[in-house]
Amino acid sequence: MSNETETKQLKANAKPEEPTTFVAYIQRWFMRVRAGDLGSLPIILGLIVIAAIFGTLSEGIFFRERNFVNLLLQTSGVAAIAIGVVFVLLIAEIDLSVGFVSAVGGVIMTLLLRESHTDWPWWAAVGAALLAVLVIGLIHGIIITKASVPSFVVTLAGLLAWSGVVLILTTEFSTAGTIVIQDDIILGVANSYLPTNWSWIVFALIVAGYAIYELTQMNSMRQRNLASKPVSVIVAQVLSLAILAGATVWYANLDRGVPTSAVIVVIFAGIWTFVASRTKFGRYVYAVGGNPEAARRAGINVDGIRIACFMISSFMAGIGGIILASRLRSVDTNTGGNSLELNAIAAAVIGGTSLFGGTGKVTNAILGALIIASVDNGMGLMGWPSGVKFVVNGCVLLAAVLIDSISRRNRSASGLA
Amino acid sequence: MSQKPLLELKSVSKNFGAVQALYKVDFRVFPGEVMALVGDNGAGKSTLIKGIAGIHTFNDGEVQFDGKPVSITSPRDSAALGIEVVYQDLALADNLDVVNNMFLGREKTTSFGTLDELSMESEALATLESLSVTTIRSVRQAVAGLSGGQRQAIAVAKAVMWNSKLVILDEPTAALGVAQTRQVLNLVRRLADRGLGVILISHNLHDVFEVADRVTVLRLGQDVGEHFVKETTQQKLVEAITAGELTHVPGMQEA
Ligand SMILES: Nc1ncnc2c1ncn2[C@@H]1O[C@H](COP(=O)(O)OP(=O)(O)OP(=O)(O)O)[C@@H](O)[C@H]1O
Ligand SMILES: [Mg+2]
Fold it and tell me: What number is the ipTM of this complex?
């Protein structure tokens, strides 16, 4: 190759071919979807289909503002747990213990709050519960990495052992097996709602924050001569967020309002999205999931990253456990049961996090949890028997995994990754 | 070619238990040259570069870098000296994009401690441009979608980005077709033209004659000759690889 042609080619190709107009952007999006890079599309379509089905079957009750707020309440606990599960799935591991680890967190907090006994302030009880679940995650992580036992086995053992601990604690400290939460702040987590004006302030903060972030990003990319999104695309994205979040807040405010637990989940989703996408740690999580050997040669402490992911999973399980305990106003011998861990893992997978590691997004786990909760909620409204519920839940999960594997096949066929 | 070798191994040996993988090997690379390392399977090529990279340590002998004796006992030591290795399996993370792979483990951060994607992207583009890597459409696409030659180019670009002085490539063209082999060889040549020392391991003598300045032949763990490529022929090299004269007969204990 002569030097001259090389230089010409360089000028033509060195800059990335990013679309620069709104139309080009939409075209590329269509192209990607056709090539199998579906993004959040299946989840959103799935939500619409589920809403349509149960809306019709329940003759509109599913869409009532009261049921909408219930749906947000039902989603919160599972969504919190699913956010943590995303991290273990990202490193191509699994955590089957999250259901009962969440219960351990909820039970420890509830026990410490009892007025007649320890009577700890709410923050100390929550802190102790979260510390306990962090230690659980640490133990899981150390066994999995240092003894090279598959996470499937270790966390399955965890599932059994921690369910036993829940049983022991709840029967030991109560005669009826039920311990009631006696703290107004903790009860408020899943039983209080943002006042209307506050809900709009939170809404404005989120939308403005997103808009400012995107615009400054675009600005600095332009300054450095890097290809950036066109302004029209940013405007469209900010508008969709504003419409979606605005509709949610408005509709919830027609009933009791936006549940505090939903706000807690959104805050954690924001924090973990930031960690996953903007920090070295997050980058290393994806690298370990994509190619552990590459990560090791790059000097990354692979075992450390893996242990941390199991700790994040347990920590978010603890948060979910607190939300769920608050919702029921108590813990009992059944806490953590009802295949909670499967629902949380399903939520993460439905949210597009691959079981093979390396791809997935924290925020989509919330959408996955919303799907799981919608199906549950709709079936509850219809009064379907639990056998049918299990079958339907199984089918929803299977559908999600099938969509993932088919789109993955198309993706690799078209070389999109 | 300058006078002083960039890297000089003097009489290095390495044994794995009873296996004498390297025996009193002398080896030099000058800045600005491509030094090819050839030899039959099991001749000790990979062992030699692993010693230079700090994955193994030599049992015996002396290593000089930039004229100074050095001791390389870990990959970190070699990286600190400016030695970068592109292994045959490349070890790229398929799910990460080109920029993220090039900076993996050495990410740039802003003053808030967050990833500085923009500087990384600019720098990655600049590096690829300086190496005239022209076939990569977007540095924000995942590596999984790239061809073998493009992946090799990314791995090489990753290696030269860190002010490296010596780049070692283990069979970089083994899995590539004609056109992509050509691209990678061009890239290898450009590295040397920028003043870096390059060690190229290859089983393909055709490649060696195309880009290398000099060639060292290993046979059964011993160096059996160092030649200027211009002053030798494929025929002679094949002879050296298969029947080069050994100073030490393997299997015999030293007196
Ligand atoms: N870790 C090890 N433990 C024991 N023996 C080893 C080890 N690594 C290499 N050897 C031996 O050292 C000798 C040289 O091996 P090396 O991998 O360096 O050969 P090579 O020239 O790279 O061959 P190839 O062209 O097949 O890659 C061989 O006999 C091999 O079996
Ligand atoms: Mg080898």
Answer: 0.84
